[in-house]
Amino acid sequence: MALDPTLRDTVLASVPSLRAFAISLCGTVDRADDLVQETLLRALANIDSFQPGTNMSAWLFTILRNLFRSEYRKRRREVADSDGSYAARLKTHPEQEGRIEFGEFRAALSRLPDEQREALILVGASGFSYEEAATICGCAVGTIKSRVNRARARLAELLSIDSLDEFGPDQTTRAVLVGFDK
Amino acid sequence: MQDDIPVGPKKKMLSSNNAGRGGLTREVQAKIGQQLRSIYNDVVDQGVPDRFLELLNKMDADKKKTDKDVG
Known about the structure:
The complex is a heterodimer. Chain A folds into three domains: 9-79, Rna Polymerase Sigma Factor, Chain: A (Orthogonal Bundle), CATH 1.10.1740; 81-111, no CATH class; 114-182, Orthogonal Bundle (Arc Repressor Mutant, subunit A), CATH 1.10.10. Chain A is 72% helix and 0% strand. Chain A has ten helices and no strands. In chain A, α1 packs antiparallel against α2 and α3 crosses α8 (130-137). The longest helix of chain A has 24 residues, at 56-79. Chain A is globular and about 55 Å long. Chain B has one domain. The model of chain B is unreliable at 1-21 (pLDDT under 50). By secondary structure, chain B is an all-alpha fold. Chain B has helices at residues 11-15, 26-44, 50-70. The longest helix of chain B has 21 residues, at 50-70. Chain B is rod-shaped. Chain B has three helices and no strands. Classes of the chains: A mainly alpha, B mainly alpha.
């Protein structure tokens, strides 16, 4: 029996967001696409363990993240040093520059600890609930919330957004504009 | 599960107070969320690259062939 066409379509529909998540993990499009491919192969080989009616996208994200954790992260650690050089590396990939604009925000994002960045992406961009993100990352809901909060705070800090209460709305808005729209 | 950042039990506290979690104002949080979704959606908007369509087609074909050989 061939793959159920409905399942196939559901898997395909998840590919664009899987790629976006993978790029945020891997840092380069080529490596991200390899990770997505590996994820699809793994998923389809184990499609019987997918429970119909549950969230296919979350299932695929979980597989992708586990693969990344087990293989790609090791590789990245070999080439990446801690803070700013990762962002610098992103900027020097000519094949990417044509496709995506690397701004200040992206550079700041790349400087977040992996766990904070993935939590922020899952909740803030992929649209998963805290509960779903916790399942994908294999941790407690409270841990995800804490990572997301720390990620936002760190981003604001990196982008020099003064965000504390002493600033009124106008000043805050100005600070945000200065911080983001360069 | 599309746009809004899910807000847990702290929702009340946030909506009643301009400064939210971690001392970030809602404006800052909103701006971060907007930037985040913007770069994410840049990729999402690229759709499904051909290599993945081809991959699924090939796997489907391989599976059919295997099933046929077995059955």
